[in-house]
Structure formats: C-alpha cells, structure tokens
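Q: Please design a sequence for this.
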C-alpha cells in the first residue's frame, strides 16, 4: 500500500513539472515584427513593408508599437498604425488572434523600429 502511494506521488510530481499548459500569458515579445525594403521609392523616400505576427496562443488587442520618427509627413498604407505620439496603435486596436498577421507599408527617409510595447491579452 505504501509503495503504491509513493508511485502515485512521484507520478504527480513529474506531471506537475512537465505540463505547463497553454494558458501562459502573452507579452509584447510574442509579437514578431519584420520589415522589408520594397523596390522603388514613394515621394523620393524608401518604401517599407511591415508585418506584425502574433505568435501567442492567446488573442492580443490594443497593441501599441514604438513609432518614434513617424509623423504626418510619413505615408502609411493602409492606415495600419494610429499616430497618437511616440506610441502607435496597431490596426485600430482590433484583436490579433493566434498566428494572425497585420501588414502595412510606409515611406520614410529613416527606418522606424515599430517595436511592440504593450497589449491586452484575451485567453478566454
């Protein structure tokens, strides 16, 4: 009887270490940003294509990106990022589901980082 209890206890301990589950919270680092320089120029400035991919199993919404250098003279198509200041709202704050990608292009004399800064997580 005592041996069975030890085996059951050991199995429970091993399972608790091995099963992390999918409910781990998402962070802005789960948003992968890639930029590609496009051929040609727009208004005499280099043209970039930006993709932002949600690599978390949960939905992220209200995504904010660092966008220092993005100003009213920089063309963004479609309006993929709102421009409140040093932070931009991605895709109007709409949800980004797991593995979803949002694309936008911009033209600027300097490349802008668009580093993910914050988001709200919905893992329901």
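A: Design:
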């Amino acid at each position: 009887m005592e041996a069975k209890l030890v085996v059951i206890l050991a199995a429970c301990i091993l399972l608790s270490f091995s099963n992390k589950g999918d409910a781990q919270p998402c962070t802005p680092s789960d948003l992968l940003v890639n930029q590609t320089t496009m051929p040609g120029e727009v208004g005499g400035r280099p043209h970039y294509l930006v993709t932002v991919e949600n690599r978390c199993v949960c939905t992220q919404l209200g995504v904010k990106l660092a966008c220092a250098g993005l100003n009213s003279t920089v063309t963004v198509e479609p309006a993929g990022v709102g421009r409140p200041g040093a932070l931009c709202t991605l895709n109007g704050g709409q949800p980004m589901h797991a593995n979803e990608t949002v694309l936008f292009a911009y033209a600027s004399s300097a490349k802008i980082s668009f580093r993910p800064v914050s988001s709200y997580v919905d893992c329901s």
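Q: Thanks. Anything notable?
A: The first helix runs from residue 2 to 18. The helical segments are 2-18.
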